[in-house]
Description:
Elements: E1 5-9, H1 22-35, E2 39-40, H2 43-50, E3 61-68, E4 77-78, E5 84-85, H3 88-99, E6 109-113, H4 117-127, H5 139-144, E7 148-152, H6 181-199, E8 206-208, H7 216-225, H8 227-230, E9 234-236, E10 255-256, H9 264-273
Parallel strand pairs: 1-3, 1-10, 2-3, 3-6, 6-7, 8-9
Antiparallel strand pairs: 4-5
Helix pairs in contact: 1-3, 1-9
The structure holds zinc ion.
Amino acid sequence: MRVPVLTYHGVNVAGDAYVGNDHVALAVDLRLISDAGLRIVPLSWVVQQLLGLAARDLDHCVALTCDDGSDYDYFDLDYPPHGRQRSFFNTLLDFRRERGFAAQPDLHLTSFVIASPAARREMDQRCLFGRDALRSNWWRSAQTSGLMSIENHSWDHNHPELSGNGPYGMPRGSFLDVNNHARADAEITAAARYIDGVIAPQRCSLFCYPFSHVSDYLRSDYLPNHQAEHGMLAAFGDGATPITFDSDRWNLPRYICGYHWKSPDELNDLLHAGT
Ligand SMILES: [Zn+2]
């Protein structure tokens, strides 16, 4: 198994060119991946394979993820001053209409969302446009569409723009400070339970580290030793290699659009190095 996992951000909109606009990039990349003869599969399949819970054929496969759970993942919305953006969800549907179901029968995108309603409201005001574009009202529809899964990107991202301290006196701005059991419960287990409440009867089971900050406490203690509490099966960082059977279950690598590749050619190189 050598599965590259690609990551997009719905709020990465700096124009309408491939570089700087993850919506434009995803639309191009779906076609590029298909033309390269690669299959897109759900991220959960890769984790199940890694953990010995499934034995599918995952040769020449790719998995897709997106982070932070803005409404731009699901709804077409304006992003001032760059205009209307085609949502990631609708970009998947566009691809299906253009190429047909058989082109990518397992087409799927995993969206890592921020749980806390208060944190989402505050980040919407301070980091976006105050248009209420970090909602949870689409999570269930996305999940039941079969084209997306909603997974865990922490309680509040411990984002630097949030007011006050984080849980248990944690300074804002770094996820490396999630370094004890109480903070980990507040950031990961509480987030999982909140997300589960929205997407029930589905449950989230994958975690993605905010800022790709992989705290040693989370990776080597909390996540492996407290699974009965948090229910996570695996966690994702930004290691920029394909997932193989040698990958660390609690720090699985991903490639970030705009960072690890900035053009279709660079993605093509990355995919061929990785399969
Ligand atoms: Zn994030």
